[in-house]
Amino acid sequence: MELKLRHKPIDQVGIEERCARFKTRSIKTDAKMQGLKMALSMIDLTTLEGKDTAGKVRQMCYKAMHLHDELPGLPTVAAVCVYPEMVASARKYLGSSGVKIASVATAFPSGQTNLDIKLADTKQAIDAGADEIDMVISRGKFLQGDYNFVFDEISSIKEACGNKRLKVILETGELGDLENVALASRLAIDAGADFIKTSTGKIQPAATMEVTLVMLEVIRDYYFETGKMVGMKPAGGISNSKLALHYLIMLKETLGDAWLTNEWFRFGASSLANDLLKQLVKQTTGVYQSGNYFALD
Amino acid sequence: MAKKNDTNTWSLSPAPESTSHIRIDKKYDLFIDGKFTPPQSKKYFKTINPATEEVLAEIADANEKDVDRAVKAARKAYTNVWSKMEPKERAKYIFRIARLLQERAREFAVIESMDGGKPIRESRDFDVPTAAAHFFYHAGWADKLEYAFPAKKPKSIGVVGQIIPWNFPLLMASWKIAPALAAGNTVVLKPAETTSLTALKLAELIRDSGIPDGVVNIITGAGETGKALVEHPDIDKIAFTGSTAVGKMIQRSLAGTNKKLTLELGGKAANIIFEDAALDQAVEGIINGIFFNQGHVCCAGSRVFVQESVVDAVTRRLEHRMNSLIIGDPLDKNTDIGAINSKGQLETVNKYLELGQKEGFEMFQAGNEPPKKGFWCKPTLFKNVAQSSIISKEEIFGPVLVMQTFRTIDEVIDKANNTPYGLSAGVWTDKGSKIFNLTSRLKAGVVWANTFNKFDPTSPFGGYKESGFGREGGIQGLSAYLKFD
């Protein structure tokens, strides 16, 4: 298909100033409690390692469902995020808990293979019980300017996903500048992405507030034009509560309260959960507890 | 924006800055010759918190005799001490003031927000640090004047009378006092009557710095006090920041005297958004341009010109962004828009709101409901305004933005310059050559490109036409406090 693609001018300095402004928001007492729980419920608890095993996945799934049983009233995380090979195990251990299974696919993390293999990868994950697919775009093709290729690839994967939700990973750390991030975001959305996601976590820098803001603004533009909502998932590098709360402030002020749910926003993170739990316990009891009180999975 | 979902609203809890660490006296006298002394007028007036209408303190009302005492003290200090002091010794005192201001930054920020109504985020992150930066910057010049103006033999002027407005009370005091002292002058400064407190706290701090008595005198009062200062025969220079109307009166009164004069007056800045701009950042620039300090900014970007091809896109984003602004308690760390500085100013702003609607322009207001008590104005946008409307001609000095559209570069330059003012302007475009084209053709003292309301002590600030003359900041600002052979 013919794409009318145009880089949207973005001023890096202006983006940085706006992000600094989000960080001046002071989140206290009730708002902090609510924010911490909300962040917890938005986590895609992730393990994406060569050494992943069913045993590792079993432990992570238990954690996803029982974040910190000492503290009643906690939500579960939104999903676990694993390789296709691990989806069946996750399905078995999560049962009917409501925690979703996201599977990376399409030759994650590089995406350097052909479409048939990517489709097979996707199909394998879905057949094994994945609820959501996190695909990677072909960054090489994108940087070559072969936008049609990238678009077609995303729409083919989207078709293969059927009614499963598709998250499209842009790997912004490889895209070079914010204008490319905006262009890739729009391209992914137009090609059918239900969510756009910053990073695989395998490349530095992973998610930053600046990159996330640019992507949120593309989502807002698309909403203004079509009335359709698209989700956002920053992944990698968000490891403490304060930063997570500032991301939520950014989300609220850029897109509005309607996005403040795990249906439309996710954190791709693993160590963030324990810091959120630590802060929640502090808010509840008034004292910090040592890291030893929070399980590592 | 999207469908309202009650299950996932998230509002920020109150996060007020503590006031437990500050001290405001019940009553403030005049700071003359290094001491606080009661006014000969025996009169005091009340200063209130515009966010609560509660009285904060009583302030001495200086009459002509008090002004005379202050000028005499400044003259004596100039002749006997300050003009004879080694420049590097002068610098030590100015550096000391800068450091003391940094040490007491929190206290100054809180009092500034209480007395003037500005959000604590701004007084904490902008007013106080920038004020300290001005003292630091000018302290550095004190013993290098010969290098700043080579072969021009710079000399101090004498006693300087300084009158400052209520929008940035501490910062304007610093803009005025720091270069005057660095150049070797002594000072009589009068703050605005609604916002005297931080100037008086600065007087305490200056006294604590050990600077010789009489070098800085701070007297309080309203227009009459200012008039007495302007007309005092032993003043060598007047530096005024405030309204164009008062500036004209001062200039008339100084005609035929030897007194030097610098004026920094009103403005109605054009903030120009081209279709090739980074629109989201431009919207942020529009917000900062007009809603910073409730629009009580002489260089506020109060007229926004948007190229017709992107006017819908800009308007929608702007309204959306305005909806996320938080209006309320100036001491709350999350407040974006604080209180209007005084009842009088609120009446002025409201008059323009009525006028704009009467003129037939569509008004958009955003933000939460402001508190019941105090003086408040919601952030306001007038859309599709005409160049000939009163609201796009006169300075409103409040959180009120008027939006006009344009089609070509020449058209927007003509419209931007078609005003008696010329203090500042903003240009938003991704194209560098366009920026340089405009900066050379816009008749404004400051032109910001892809940003707005940026200040630095090293950069001169001042206006064209009825926005005044003379510069403040940088070497140019320093030269206004010197005479040359």
TrEMBL record, chain A:
<dbReference type="GO" id="GO:0004139">
    <property type="term" value="F:deoxyribose-phosphate aldolase activity"/>
</dbReference>
<keyword id="KW-0456">Lyase</keyword>
<dbReference type="GO" id="GO:0009264">
    <property type="term" value="P:deoxyribonucleotide catabolic process"/>
</dbReference>
<protein>
    <recommendedName>
        <fullName>Deoxyribose-phosphate aldolase</fullName>
        <ecNumber>4.1.2.4</ecNumber>
    </recommendedName>
</protein>
<dbReference type="Pfam" id="PF01791">
    <property type="entry name" value="DeoC"/>
</dbReference>
<comment type="pathway">
    <text>Carbohydrate degradation; 2-deoxy-D-ribose 1-phosphate degradation; D-glyceraldehyde 3-phosphate and acetaldehyde from 2-deoxy-alpha-D-ribose 1-phosphate: step 2/2.</text>
</comment>
<dbReference type="GO" id="GO:0016052">
    <property type="term" value="P:carbohydrate catabolic process"/>
</dbReference>
<keyword id="KW-0704">Schiff base</keyword>
<dbReference type="InterPro" id="IPR002915">
    <property type="entry name" value="DeoC/FbaB/LacD_aldolase"/>
</dbReference>
<dbReference type="GO" id="GO:0005737">
    <property type="term" value="C:cytoplasm"/>
</dbReference>
<dbReference type="InterPro" id="IPR013785">
    <property type="entry name" value="Aldolase_TIM"/>
</dbReference>
<dbReference type="InterPro" id="IPR011343">
    <property type="entry name" value="DeoC"/>
</dbReference>
<comment type="similarity">
    <text>Belongs to the DeoC/FbaB aldolase family. DeoC type 2 subfamily.</text>
</comment>
From TrEMBL, chain B:
<dbReference type="GO" id="GO:0016620">
    <property type="term" value="F:oxidoreductase activity, acting on the aldehyde or oxo group of donors, NAD or NADP as acceptor"/>
</dbReference>
<protein>
    <submittedName>
        <fullName>Aldehyde dehydrogenase family protein</fullName>
    </submittedName>
</protein>
<dbReference type="InterPro" id="IPR016162">
    <property type="entry name" value="Ald_DH_N"/>
</dbReference>
<feature type="domain" description="Aldehyde dehydrogenase">
    <location>
        <begin position="37"/>
        <end position="483"/>
    </location>
</feature>
<dbReference type="InterPro" id="IPR015590">
    <property type="entry name" value="Aldehyde_DH_dom"/>
</dbReference>
<comment type="similarity">
    <text>Belongs to the aldehyde dehydrogenase family.</text>
</comment>
<dbReference type="InterPro" id="IPR029510">
    <property type="entry name" value="Ald_DH_CS_GLU"/>
</dbReference>
<dbReference type="InterPro" id="IPR016161">
    <property type="entry name" value="Ald_DH/histidinol_DH"/>
</dbReference>
<feature type="active site">
    <location>
        <position position="264"/>
    </location>
</feature>
<keyword id="KW-0560">Oxidoreductase</keyword>
<dbReference type="InterPro" id="IPR016163">
    <property type="entry name" value="Ald_DH_C"/>
</dbReference>
<dbReference type="Pfam" id="PF00171">
    <property type="entry name" value="Aldedh"/>
</dbReference>
